[in-house]
User: Fold these one by one.
Assistant:
Number 1:
Amino acid sequence: METLTLAFLGHLVGDYLLQTDWMAENKKYKTMPCLLHSALWAGSVVFFTGWGFLPFVLLLVAHFIQDRTYLIRDWMHLMGQDRFATGSYSPWGMVIVDNTLHLLQIWLIWKFIV
C-alpha cells in the first residue's frame, strides 16, 4: 500500500508542480506540450514508486489520451453530469473527474502490472 501512496504523490507532483502554463494551456490542442506533460507525469509516478519501463509507458499513453482528448467532458456527458462539468461547479467538477481517472489508472497499473 505504501507504493500506491507514493504513486498518488507522484501524480500530484507531476500533474501540478511540474506542469507549466505552456503545457496546461496547449496540451488539449498540440501534441508536444501534451506529450511532454504526460512524460513528466508518468516519470514522476515512476520516480516515486520505483516502477519500471512498462508502467511508465502505460501511464504515459493513458495520460496523453486523457489530456489530449475530450474524454473527461464526453464521460461526464455520458454519465449525465453536464451541470457538474459546466455549471457552478466549473471547472472543479472536471478537475475532480480528471484526477479520479488518473488515480484509477495508477491503481490499475499497481494492481495488475507491478
Note: The two ends are 12 Å apart (CA to CA).
Number 2:
Amino acid sequence: MDIQDFFQMCGGKWVSQRTTHHLIEQKNQSDRSDLWVDILDPEHTEVVDLCKLYDLQSSQAYGGLNIRWSEVAEAYQSRLKPRNEGSTLLVPILDPDFPNRGRILRKLNTNTALGTFSFGLDEALTIVLESNGLVTEERMWFASPRPSNLRLRSSLVKKMACLMPQRSVLKFE
C-alpha cells in the first residue's frame, strides 16, 4: 500500500469514536463525530494554495484529503459545550526515490504545519508534524484487508520541551 491507496480507502463518510487520556489531569474524555473525507486533485485550489505557502509546486503533490468533522448532538449537548466542528487538509509530497515516504502539509482550520509521512511494512501510515511547540505523531491503519470499513488511529502529542535532552549531574563520593 502507498499514500495513494490509503487516501482512496479513506474517502467517504465515517463515524469517529475517540477516547482521549490526559496524563497530567488523570482523566479520560470520549467523543463521537461524523467525518466526511473528500479526495482532492493536485490542481484543486486548496491544494495549490497550501503548496504555495511552503514554496512547493502542486505538481509534486499526490493531491489532498479534505477531512471535515462535526460532533454528534448527544456528545456536545450533554457537556453544555458548543459543537466541535472543523476541517483538516492533508497534502502529501511524494519522495521520488522512496514512494513509501515523503513530506506532508497540513492545514487545520487556519493553522498550517509541515511534517513527514511514512508507511511501515504493516501498511500503517505514520505522520509526524511539528507546530506551535508541539510534536504530533499519528499512526493510522485499516483493521482488515480491502475494502475495510474500520480505520484505526492513535495520536501522541508531545511538548517540544519534553523532547530536549535533560542534563543531569552524577556525583560520586
Note: The domain at 3-17+27-163 is CATH 2.40.128.20 (Lipocalin).
Number 3:
Amino acid sequence: MPYYVEDDARALRQAFEKIVLLWPQVMTRRMFGCPAYVADGRLFAFLVTDGVVITQLRRKDVQTLAQDNQTEPFKAGERVITRWTKVFIADPAAIGRIMGFVRKSYQTAMERR
C-alpha cells in the first residue's frame, strides 16, 4: 500500500503547502512517494495520505504534540523510525493545530546547516 495517494490527500497537501511554501528556503521533493518538504536541503516534514510526518522534533515536543493529537512513530515498511512522528489529520481544515510543531521542525532543520 502506498504511503500517499494524491486523490485522497489533495486537500491536506493544499492546506499544508499554503503555509509551509511561504517559509524561507522551503522546497518540495518526493520521498517514499510522498510530497516532502526540505529547508536548506534538510527534511523537516512529509505528507502521507492520512496525516503529516514531522521529522525534526525534539522529544519534549513529540510528547506535547501527542497530548492533543493522535500520533505514532513513522513506519517505513517493517522498520519503525522512532524519531519521525506521524500525526493523523482527519480534517485538512484542522491543519493549523499542528503547524507550530511543523514550524519547530523547520527551524531545527534550518539550525543544522
Note: The CA atoms of residues 55 and 83 lie 7 Å apart.
Number 4:
Amino acid sequence: MPPVYEGKYEVTIGLEVHAQLNTKSKIFCGCNTAFGAQPNTQVCPVCLGLPGVLPVLNQEVLKKAVLAGLATNSRINRFSKFDRKQYFYPDLPKAYQISQYEQPICLDGELQIIDDEGKPKRIGITRIHMEEDAGKLVHSEDKSLPLSYIDLNRTGVPLIEIVSEPEIQSPLEAYNYLTNLKAILRYADISDGNMEEGSLRCDANVSIKPVGATKLGTRCEIKNLNSFKNVKASIEYEISRQIAMVEAGESVRQETRLWNADEGRTRTMRSKDDAHDYRYFPDPDLVPIVLSEEEIEKIRDLLPELPQQKSSRFQQQYSLPEYDATVLTATRETAEYYEQVVAGGIPPKKASNWIMSEVLYLLKENSWEMSEFPVKAEATAKLLQLVESGTISGKIAKKVFDKMVAGEGDPDQIVAREGLVQVSDTAAIEAVIQEVLSENQDQVEEYRSGKEKVFGFLVGQVMKKSKGKANPQVANDLLKKALSN
C-alpha cells in the first residue's frame, strides 16, 4: 500500500535527473570539461554559439548514453535525433539548447528500489536523452560589483536527462531511487555523480490526490536540487504545502518552485512551462543517429557487474547478510576494497565488520572517497591477519589502524615498534589477574555472591593493567578459574 498523508491523500512524484557525463571534452566541440577552471577559459566558437559554426557529436557521449540505457534495462532506439529547445536565459548563449525530444536515445527503462515498507519496487524510466548543459550565473554579494556574472565554461558540457515515470510515492522512495541511480552511473563509469560540483542535479515533480482517485493532482516542479537530503526535505515540505492549500479550499497552481534549504521551504520561481512552450524542432546542423545491433552489443560488453547483481553475489559467495552486502556494494570502490581484503585470507564476515565499522566510519568522518583512503586493502588484510593469528587483539588492532591511517607504517612495523604483541603466556596473565583481584576485593566478593555482571568489570581491569596486550580469551578463562578458587 502506498503511504497515505493526513489520512486522506496519496502522493505522486516524478524525478528528472540531469547527470553530467564524465567525458574529457564537451558534447559538440573539443573544449575541456574539467571542473574548477578559471571562468570563461574553456570555451570556443562552437559552445559559444557564434555564427557560422557547426556542432559535431562526441562519440564518447553517445557511448555513455547508450550504456546508461543498457544499465537501466531501457530500449535503445536504433534511430534518434537532436532537437532545438527554444528559450531565453542569460547563461544560454544560443538562446536555444540542443536536446532530444521526439526521438530520444533510450526509452522504457526501469530501476529497482526499496519502498517505505522495506519491499522491492520497480520504478519505470520514461526516457533517457542526451543534451548540452547551459552556463552558470555567479551572483556577487559585493555591492560595489555587478550583481551577477556569467561563466560559460559549463556551456556544452554533455548531459543525459533521466526521466522517471510518476510512480514514486514518498520522499523516502525518491531518496532510494536517487541513491540506486547514482550507484549505477558510477559503477558503469558514466558519471561521477558529484552533486557538490553539479554533476548530478534533480528536479522533482510533486502532486497530491485523494486516496483512491484515478486522476493525478496538479503538479509543481521543484527545480535544481543539489543533494539527496534536499530532495527528501523539499518533497516533504511540498507535500505539506499542497495538502494545506487543498484543506483551505485553495487550488494548487502548476508552477516551478525553488527550494530554500536555510528556510526549509519552497518558493515560486515561475509558472511551469509545457513542451509546446519550447517550440521544439529538429536541429538542422546535426545528422540523425543510426545504431546497429552490433554497435549496441559492443557497448553492452562494457557493462560491469552492477550494484544489485554484486550484492546478490556477495550474499551467496561470502554468506553475508543482506544488510552487509548492500552497504559494501553501495560504491564500486568499496566493493573492490572488500574483495581485496577477503582475498588476503580474511574470513568474509570479519572483513565486512571491519570495513563497515572502521573504514566507512573514517571515510564519512574525513569526507574521503574510497580512492583517497590512505590505507590500501592489502595493508588492512595484513592487519586482520595479525588478529586472526592471535598476534594482536582486536582492541590493539584499532590503535594500529589509526597509526596506519596517519601514515606511520605497515601493521608489522607498528606492532614491532610499539611492542604491541598480544600476551598469551598463562603465567604472565595469571600474575596480572592476581594483582587485579587483590586490588578489587569488594568486586570479587560481589561476584562470588552471585553478581556475575561484575565479571566484565574485572576483565576490563585485567586488559587495562596489561595495556590491552593480554589475549582476551585466555584472560577470560584464567580469570574465571581464579574466581572459582
Note: The first strand starts at residue 9 and ends at 20.
